[in-house]
Amino acid sequence: MKKAAVIGNPIQHSKSPFIHNFWLKKFNIEGSYEAIKAENNKEFEKTVLKLIEDGYTGFNVTIPFKGLAHEMCDERLDIGYVSHYPSDLGAANTIKIKDNKLIGYNTDFFGFYQDQKITMRNDKKNVIILGAGGAARSIAFGLANMKKYCWDSDPTLIILNRNEDRAKSLIDDIYKSNITSKKMNKDLTLLSGPLEDIYERIRGCNLLVNTTPIGMNDKGVNFPFDIRDVLYGANGLLGELVVYDIVYNPLKTKLLEEADKMNLVYKNGMGMLIWQAAPAFNLFFLENDIDNFEEQHLEQYENFFGELWNDLFNNVAYND
Ligand code: NAP
Predict the structure, then answer these.
(1) Ligand 1 atom closest to Cα of residue 276
(2) Alpha carbon distance 162, 166 (integer Å)
(3) Which mutation among 63, 105, 212 tests ligand 1's pocket best, with the greatest number of atoms within 8 A of CB?
(4) Active site residue 66
């Protein structure tokens, strides 16, 4: 029996076991996927060694261990929208155990891209990302490499974060990165600033992505700006802003509520959550190479997507 797990802290609300167990049934695979809590870094390392010893095929990693997991890997790869490439991200969310070695991937950008590729192709050339943590890093690195798909002339990627220095170092890392020097759109303008800069930056923005936990059920915090005013700032000018909130609990955050009221196209993070898990399942339980995931394996997951989305919505999303 193949075994995999997700390790994090907190972990009790993780949707990963639900998603992987859904696919285990659909693909008729005898396997198990469990959530494991690690109190601290030391316990995380111990848990990983135990999983290797117990013959697990791999594991996912969530807050706050993605950086440590990346450091622990023997080999590090990131899955982009079509392929993977050596990692400068500094965060791994999917680890394959092979011959007692850890091979790390980051599938977050794949999840983000796959969930909204229809809107991505619609010439989104001015993007604002709110937040500069792990999820923002993977999305920003991924977008900076999207020349082929949607980056038209003079694209701009702006990272706004509470801690401005962190946004700046993300931008610096993208510039410095080997992967981007090979594949990045050289015309791309990268800018950073505090969250409040959104008032001036929103003009001309086509895609606004929230990667902060603001709006999550258990967080009583708000953005340091008036969402409605900000959305009017963009919409009044262009009328084609897409708003993406990677938070999925609740499914409609305040940001998305306002976007809805203004008839903007918007999406929550549940699709991303499902899609970031698909290449991991493929690695852990089907033992397929991740290289040709999109070409060879994506379709079977697409067939189950609607049912899984509804199951998550009905059974999990509103119950915690
Ligand atoms: P992270 O590495 O801890 O980063 C959190 C980011 O949010 C940082 O930029 C942080 O700013 C900012 N932030 C936190 N609290 C804030 C507050 N009160 N006010 C303003 N900014 C605040 O976390 P992460 O891994 O990027 O995850 C972020 C969110 O994305 C979580 O809600 C997570 O559940 C969600 N997520 C969803 C998916 C999906 O598949 N849908 C995938 C990954 C993550 P500072 O730098 O100033 O601290």
Answers:
(1) 40
(2) 8
(3) 212
(4) yes
